[in-house]
Each structure stands twice: as C-alpha cells, then as structure tokens.
Amino acid sequence: MDVNRKTAYYVLMDVENKKSYSNLALNHHIIISKPTNEGFVRELVYGVLENKMLLDYVIDHLIPKDVAKLNTRDLTILRMGIYQLAKMNSVPEYAAVNESVVLAKRFAKGREGFINGVLRGYINEKYTIKLPDRADDEVRYLSVKYSYEPWIIQLWLESYDVDFVEELLKAGNETPETCIRLNWLKVMKPDLIHSLEERGFKVREGKYSKNALYVSGGNLTGGKLYKNGLFSIQDEASQIAAQMMDPKHGDVVMDVCSGVGGKALAIAERMNNKGLVIASDIYKRKVETVMTEAQRLGVNIIQPKTWDATKVDSSMIMKADEVLVDAPCSGLGVIRRKPEIKYKKNNDMLGGLPRKQLAILTASSQYVKPGGLLVYCTCTINTYENERVVSDFLRKNKTFKSEETMQLLPNVNGTDGFFICKLRRTQNLIDDWNEADE
To answer: SS3 of 72, please?
Structure first.
C-alpha cells in the first residue's frame, strides 16, 4: 500500500470523524506515518478538502443512490480517487484507480468493486457532468463550483457584488504563500534575507507589515535560523494588528485572547522587550505554548494568564496602555489555510458569535487607561462580527472613538481575511463617570 495515500486517508478521516483541523491532523500523521512524498500528501489532502462539495456533486452523478448515504470510508476513498483523476496530472489514471482499490481492500473491505466501478465510470463520463445552471440558481452554482456552504456565499453577497464574491471564493481555494515575521530583537531584515537566500530560499518583502517576508523553499522551520528565534511563521495580515497598535517601550499591554501568542509576541518584539505584555487565554495549554515560543524568541516580558475574556479582571481596570482583543470568530478569512471551515453549518453563528465578541470587547475596554488604545480584530470576513460589533460597542461606550479600520481580503491584498479596528479612549474621566451613572 502506498504510504502517501494512506497518510492522506488518515488525515481526511480525522477531519471528517474527529472534526480535526486539517493542518494539525496533517502534521500529526506525517510524523507518525513518515510518507515518502510529503508534498503529494499535502496536495491530495488540501485538494480534497478544498473541493469536497464539487467532488460529492460528481460522485452523486455516478452512483444510483444519494451520495449522502455513503459511509465516510467509501466517500473519502472516492473523493481521493476522483481528485487524483481530475486535478493531479502527475498521477496516471491506472494508478489513481488501482491505489484507491488497494485502500478500499484495507479500509473498506467488500467495497473495492464498487470503488473501482465508480472511478472507471468517472473516466468514461467526466466530460458529460455539468455544473448546476447558473441562471437558475447562482448561489447553488457558486456553492458547487467552489465548494462553500451556501450561507457563506449569501453572507458575502450582502456586502459585495457577485463578481467580487466569486473572486473571493477563488482566493479561498488558493494555497497561501508562507509568510514569516522577523524578530528584530535578534536580526535585521537585510541580514535575515541574506541568511535565508544563502540557504536556498526565495524571499520577498511584504507589502503592509515592515517585518513580513514571504519565503518559499522546503523545511523552513527545521534549520538553525528558526530554532534560534530569528523569525516566526505569521501571516502578514495578522502582523498588522501589532503594527497598527504601535506599542511603546515600557508600555503595559494586554492580549486578552492570546491563543498561542503570535500577536502577543509580535507586540513584545515591537516594544524591544521592554515593558509588560499580559497574554491571557481561557485554555491553559495555549498559554503554555506562548511561553515556549517566548523562550525561543528571547522575549521575557510576557506574563501568562489563564482567564475567561468575557469576565472583567478587577485587578487590571484602567492599567493598560493598549489592549488587544483578537476575538474568537467564524474564521472565514483563513479558509485557504483551514478549508474545513467552508463546510461549517450556520447554526446561529451570526447570532451567537457577535454577542460573545461584544461581551469580550466590553469587558476588555475597562482595562484601557484614559488616552489608551483598544484594538479589536478578527480573522473573518463578516460584517456582523466586525463592523457591527464595533458599532454596537461604540453606541454603548461613548468614551471610545474609532481611529482606524481595516478589512484585508485574500483576493485584494493577498493575505488572510482580517479585520482590525483601533479605538481610542478619551482623556476625559468625567465622561467615564457620567456614562457609568446612566
């Protein structure tokens, strides 16, 4: 059995059955299975995930019963086989079919004949299968062609015209370039570029973040440059949050939803490792990861904290110069990194998430000193989670004013989809007290 296809199968089954994130499942199974062609595994996994609804549409035309009635094992093997036949020109037809049958013999015993028949049927009928009629139902056409849940397309059509939405859908299916954030505590940009190019990497500078570099080449995190903390992997859009905040040396900064700490560490680097950055998250394991990264980067001003950001920490009221709220969100801006997000059902997402985001923003605003800065950001493209949350907050909190708002989009900026808004607290404490009495 081909170890590369077996590895891809394990990853895809984890995504389906365990709801694992594709990037984490990939890294896990690559370590365990040790495939001979890691690039092939990644291409196959992401190809299937990015085109899942289109692949199921094709399969539905090739089988007598509804594709939804197939068990996950059969469906996963068929998706892998058809994707190889349709998109992977380096794979001969016989190899795509035969290796799929081998997988079926191992993981779907008794179904190898069915798998073989469907894949050969695709070879014979692939030119006769047509997409849904766009004139009849444009949302369904786009949903099948680009493999997105219809509610996401309908959501974006509220803000953009259909041509723009189609470009946004296409961009979400593209493979993002690897972007790094140089650590200027340890290296200057020209020196890091030179060191990377010496090692055979191709490097170009980012457009928006001064510390962003786009790097192509293999095993970027396996060498001494990474291990010695000269850079971190971070999308350029994510880096802009720290750049827009522009914290000063000696400031007290709070990152209330720090996750694994990418932005908190970027902030600490910008502060030249002078001051205090409180990185808090509701999950203790994420906070621990922040400290591991801080050690690699040579950052020692991070103070970790396990905390529920919807609740107010009374010990920090009006003590922070800057507060970052990188709120939990629907993640529609990082679909090109986590294509499984495209298949999430709405499930009141538009109602539940904005309420939580507003609660976190409101609680966090109490930490900001008069004249200080509150930065709200998400990695989504959704007016309900972005502009409307900020609008609701400002309507209820008159002592804050919006200074700058930015929505980055993959089809426009070449970055992840990212929303950032800077909110400044007034210097007038009397307004604060009057507002509290209302």
So the answer is: helix
Beta carbons of 152 and 160 less than 8 angstroms apart? no
Helix (H, G, I), strand (E, B), or coil: what is residue 427? coil
Closest CA to 264 of 353, 356, 375, 366: 375
Name the residues annotated as catalytic: 379
Give me the domains of the chain, ranges plus CATH numbers.
3-125 (1.10.940.10), 138-172 (no CATH), 235-437 (3.40.50.150)
Q: Which two tokens stand for residue 321?
A: 């110069």
Query: What is the C-alpha separation between 262 and 38, in angstroms, rounded?
Result: 26
How do strand 252-255 and strand 320-326 relate by DSSP bridges?
A: parallel
Q: What is the mean pLDDT of residues 144-168?
A: 97
Three-state secondary structure string covering 345-387 = CCCCHHHHHHHHHHHHHHHHHCCEEEEEEEEEEECCCCCCCCH
Q: How many CB atoms lie within 10 A of CB 199?
A: 13
Go through the chain and tell me how many residues it has.
Answer: 438
In what side-by-side order are the strands of the sheet with 231-233? 202-205, 212-216, 178-182, 231-233
Find residue 371's DSSP bridge partners. Answer: none
- For Cα atoms 12, 17, 20, give the angle at the middle one, nearest 5 degrees: 65
Is the CB of residue 413 less than 8 Å from the CB of residue 207?
yes
φ/ψ of 25, rounded to 5, equals -65, -40
Question: What pTM was computed for the model?
Answer: 0.91
Letter for the amino acid at 210? Answer: K
Range 292-323 burial, b when 16+ CB lie within 10 A, else e: ebbeebebebbebbebebbeebeebeebbbbb
Q: Residue 372: which of 249, 256, 247 has the closest Cα?
A: 247
Beta bridge partners of 302: 277
* DSSP type of residue 221: G
pLDDT in tens, 216-241: 998 899 999 999 999 999 999 999 99
- pLDDT band at residue 249 under the 50/70/90 scheme: very high
Alpha-carbon span 41 to 24, nearest angstrom: 14
Residue 406, burial from CB neighbour count under 10 angstroms (0-12, 13-18, 19+) = middle
